[in-house]
Amino acid sequence: MGTLVYVIPLFGVLGILYTVWKTSWVNHKDPGTDKMKKISGYIAEGAMAFLRAEYKVLAIFVVSVALLLAFAADSKDSSPVIAVSFLVGAFCSALAGFIGMRVATKANVRTTNAARSSLAKALEIAFAGGSVMGMGVVGLGVLGLSVLFIIYSNVFGVSNIADLNRVITIITGFSFGASSIALFARVGGGIYTKAADVGADLVGKIEAGIPEDHHLNPATIADNVGDNVGDVAGMGADLFESYVGSIVGTMVLGTAFFGLPEFADKSNGLAAVILPLMIAGVGIVMSFLGTFFVRVKEGGDPQKALNMGEFGSSFLMVIAIYFIIDYMMPSKWVFADPLYGETYTITSLGIFFATVIGLATGILIGIVTEYFTGTGRRPVLGIVHQSITGSATNIIAGLSTGMMSTAIPIVILASAILGSFALGGMYGIAIAAVGMLSNTGIQLAVDAYGPISDNAGGIAEMSELPKEVRKRTDKLDAVGNTTAAIGKGFAIGSAALTALALFGAFMTAAHIRSIDVSKAKVMAGLLFGAMLPYLFSALAMSAVGKAAMAMIEEVRRQFKSIPALSAALKVMKKNQDKDQSEWSEEDKIIFENADGSAEYGKCVDISTKAAIRKMVIPGLLAVFTPVIFGLVGDAEMLGGLLAGVTASGVLMAIFQANAGGAWDNAKKMIEGGVEIEGKMYGKGSNPHKAAVVGDTVGDPFKDTSGPSLNILIKLMAVVSLVIAPLIK
Predict the structure, then answer these.
(1) For residue range 523-544, what is the model confidence (pLDDT) as tens digits?
(2) Percentage above 70 pLDDT, the chain
(3) Residue 21 domain-assigned (yes or no)
């Protein structure tokens, strides 16, 4: 068993090698025409410019926090070395985002070019680009955590439980670093993408009557850049910190088994600590195998191909988990829980079923999310039908759909918590979170596929490729909207279980056995915690609103003040019912002369500056609130804060993500043509305009404040865990 821990980093190396291989494979695909390459270059340049600006600000924050950690953590329960863990975690999270962004901005144009001839080839490239993000995240997570554990175990020793607790406490800094980067990446990326999206939608579609992805729309490049910084780098950082957080929380709780007689031949209990690392490592292999299931024939359904990859990987993972747990854990042991003061009998089979419960919970929440947000489903059809009477009824329908969608996921999560706790106590809940995230590699690959496909459609539109190309990319994009919604549901579910695992780890580290909600200080913390998701969401949405106003004003200015652009828009409006081949020669010349007249760079600059400026306060709120409550109050008060923010935050996250997803797909249904009360409606109709307004409200819900709440919950739990040894 002692040598087993040295095998785990090899799984991480496998994930990294996969990213190198697939990146090279994508790069060798044909990027298409000169115009396509030029447009793709604009998107890549804008994405990298944002990352550089964001990382410059984050570097200051990361170094400052690392110095504070090094100074504050000098005690027998921790060590200044925790600052090193924090820096490594932050670096790995940032690197994962960089890798994913880099390949996504190369895969988008190659997907477009492949779609000129084949849907199957386009899917292959888009999924390959997404898989680089997925495997990069899990590879860096497993490699970083396992290497740090090996180094610290050798440096500090693990001869007794005090030594082991100290090693794991130092490793929690890795999760803190990952969570810090994730929050800023999610909030900053969300503000960026939604400011651009609102400008492109409201001014382009509603006022000017041109598609949001049209090359004459000044905000279109910023919009396509936003897809990458929000849904590739942002989602990658989100799941990276969930992935790492679930592993670290389980490792902390696993230390309680150290020294039990039943673990005498299992490295004296070290098996329970490295089990989550081993499951995560094997999950990389299963995600790798799952990528080979993603195949579609020409004219086939991309959704079925992606589902085959996810479900195939999950099935293989269940089999692997059984043999891992059977080998690493004793068949039965008696555990006197220091947290609850009760004695439990736990079995390896129980731990296996708890892990499977976690995996099944993620899949079930994804299915429920798909129902409430999927095109053609009853909730979305309801929003479509209520769009006929205007924006107000569209918004009411979207809000009610989002609220209704919280019920079933909460029932599923509550059942998972009760079931996994009955099978393995708090360790059972923690290992369930690991199980849910065990196939993160392929889950994130499917999720990152979405924005690549979306970008591919935008490039097809801006490059004025034949309509059949856009039809193929739209088919991929439609599936991408569903996978993105499922990914957000998956992230929310994992946030709930991971936060609960970290909460149990915090109570263990802070040496508190119970939290009495009848105490005034605990109730005060509970209420304050429940309020934080609302305040956080308000700050994020306010930032989007202000940035969107600046974007709208800039797009309007360009439409009015750039002569070539203004003339081309008049020509398009005059010929809106004609095919371009039927235009007069004079109109064709005016339209062609406008090519390249839109000042994309100014819109990119607006989104970048707004995102960097506005992401700071929400980020600091998440980091310093638990520190203040823990150091000014006490551990119980901080526990109340964590309970409040977790319960309120999970509900708010589900509500916002699903309402936004339903609004988005309702708009897309109308754009594709839909019959309402015996009459056909499509682009430009009154229901379409109402749906665009609803989608504009939902955009910051599903892409800024909603997904950022996942990280708020986990980051506050991680910060509490890190400062637990300092709380009196």
Answers:
(1) 999 999 999 999 999 988 888 8
(2) 96
(3) yes
Compute the distance between CA of residue 210 and CA of residue 562 in angstroms, rounded to an integer: 17
3-state secondary structure of 675: strand
Side-chain-side CA neighbours of residue 68 (13 Å): 14
> 368 by DSSP, 3-state: which?
helix
The pair of structure tokens assigned to 220 is 């279109």
Residue 493 has pLDDT above 50, yes or no: yes
Instruction: Provide the pLDDT confidence category of residue 319 given band limits of 50, 70 and 90.
Output: very high
- What pLDDT does 491 receive? 74
pLDDT at 728: 61
Run of H or E including 722: helix 706-723
Q: What mean pLDDT, rounded, does the chain reach?
A: 85
* The pLDDT of residue 1: 46
pLDDT for res 301? 76
Q: Is the dihedral of CA 649, 719, 257, 168 positive or negative?
A: positive
Asked whether the beta carbons of 682 and 641 are under 8 A apart, the reply is: no
Angle at which helices 270-290 and 8-27 cross, to 10°: 20
* Residue 151, C-beta contacts closer than 8 angstroms, at least 6 positions apart: none
Residue ranges in 374-465 assigned as alpha helix (H): 378-386, 391-404, 407-436, 440-462
Domain residue limits at 484: 8-562+598-726
Q: What is the DSSP string of 487-534?
A: HHHHHHHHHHHHHHHHHHHHHHHHT-----TTSHHHHHHHHHHHHHHH
Q: Is 427 within the bounds of a domain? A: yes
- Within 8 A by CB and 6+ apart from 320, the residues are 282, 285, 286
For 337, the 3-state DSSP assignment is: strand
Provide the 8-state DSSP code for 6: G
The pLDDT score that the predictor gives to residue 55 is 87
Backbone dihedral angles phi then psi of residue 681, each to the nearest 5 degrees: -130, 145
* Whether the predicted pLDDT of 78 surpasses 80: no
Alpha carbon of residue 197 to chain centroid = 18
**Angstrom distance (rounded) from CA 654 to CA 710:** 10
CA atoms 439, 324, 424, 179: torsion sign: negative
Cβ-Cβ contacts under 8 Å for 248 (sequence gap 6 or more):
145, 168, 171, 172, 174, 175, 502, 505, 718, 721
Residue 106: inside a domain = yes
Lowest mean pLDDT, pick from 336-345, 415-424, 688-697: 336-345
Look up residue 447 and give its amino acid.
D
Which residue has 């306060």 as its token pair? Answer: 617
Q: At what angle do helices 635-671 and 467-510 cross, to 10 degrees?
A: 170
What is the chain's length?
A: 728
Q: What is the pLDDT of residues 367-392, one digit of tens each?
A: 898 889 887 889 999 999 999 999 99
Residue 532 contacts residue 581 (beta carbons within 8 Å): no
Model pLDDT for residues 554-599, shown as the tens digit of each residue: 888 888 888 888 888 787 777 777 777 778 888 778 877 777 777 8
Q: What is the DSSP letter of 212?
A: T
Both tokens of 573, joined, read: 């409006």
d(CA 426, CA 420): 8
For the chain, give the longest Cα–Cα distance: 89
**Residue 627 belongs to some domain of the structure:** yes
Number of domains in the chain: 1
- Side-chain half-sphere CA neighbours of 529 within 13 A: 30
Residue 212 has pLDDT above 70, yes or no: no
Two structure tokens written together for 299: 């004219």
